[in-house]
Structures are given as C-alpha cells and as structure tokens.
Amino acid sequence: MINRVEKLSLLSEMIAFAKYDKDIQELEYNFLLGVAKQLGISREDFEYLIEHPVNYTHLKSHSERIVQFHRLVLLMNIEQEEGEETRKGVIKLYNFGLRMGLSHESISKVLYLMESFPNKIVPPDVLIDIFKTQYN
C-alpha cells in the first residue's frame, strides 16, 4: 500500500496533467475529486494541491505505477477533444509513463490500442496484460 506522501504526489501529478493545456474542466475536476476520495485525501487537501503541487515521488511498486498510468489514460479521455490537443495529450501521457519507469513498448501499445476501444478507454484487464507481457 502506498503512503500519504505518495498519494499526494499521485494526485498532484494528475492535477498537473489535467492543467497542462488549460484550466481544469468540471468533468476533470469531478474525476480528480473521486480519485482523491479513493486515495483517502480530503477535499481541503485536494483543493490545496490544485494551487500548491507537491514534488513527484516515484512509486516503488510496479503495479501501483500501472494503476496510476491507467488513471491518467482515463483522465486524458474524459474530454473527447480531437486534433492538436489530443496529440499533445498523448505525448504528455507517454512522457508521464516513461517518468514513472514504465516500458516504452507497453506505453506505446496502450496508446495504440486505445483508439480501438469505445471512448478510448482501455479496460483494466487489457492494460494489465500489456504491462505483464512487457514486464516478464
């Protein structure tokens, strides 16, 4: 299980991801608030993180990094924008995955397969299988 510092780091990273192209939209905000609740982070702490990000803390657990990458995939696809913004989001997501220490082959495969799923949402079992294959 991850500790509070890691949880705040994860949430801060997601907030930064949501803010990379513009202000956080309502759907993104609600999604992030839901993740905060899942992680046991109070609304007050969540609000504070929006304006005061914390430093990135690298997760030791490979499975936790995969879960976080999946959250970022979901966050990116909340708003179904097309064109240049989508391309920038994919690049940003790819870079976040690399920074987390995930294999570029797995990240690339997820991003490629994402296009074939409804709403570009890769099911968790498919995502886990992709990373398991590359990890072994």
**Portion of residues within helices:** 55-70%
What is the radius of gyration computed over CA atoms, rounded to a whole number of angstroms? 14 Å
**Secondary-structure element string:** HHHHHHH
End-to-end separation: 22 Å
List low-pLDDT spans.
none
Shape label: globular
Mean pLDDT: 87
Oligomer: single chain
Q: In what range is the share of β-strand residues?
A: under 5%
Counted up, domains total 1
Assign the structural class, choosing from mainly alpha, mainly beta, alpha/beta, alpha+beta, or little secondary structure. Answer: mainly alpha
Major sheet summary line: none
Number of helices: 7
Q: How many strands appear in the DSSP assignment?
A: 0
Draw up the topology in text:
Layout: H1 4-19, H2 26-39, H3 43-51, H4 62-76, H5 84-99, H6 104-114, H7 124-135
Helix pairs in contact: 1-2, 1-4, 4-5, 5-6, 6-7
Essential attributes:
136 residues; mainly alpha; 68% helix
Descriptive report:
- The protein is mostly helical and 136 residues long.
- It has one domain.
- Helix content is 68%, strand content 0%.
- It contains seven helices and no strands.
- The chain has helices spanning 4-19, 26-39, 43-51, 62-76, 84-99, 104-114, 124-135.
- α1 runs parallel beside α4 (62-76) and α6 runs antiparallel to α7 (124-135).
- The mean pLDDT is 87.
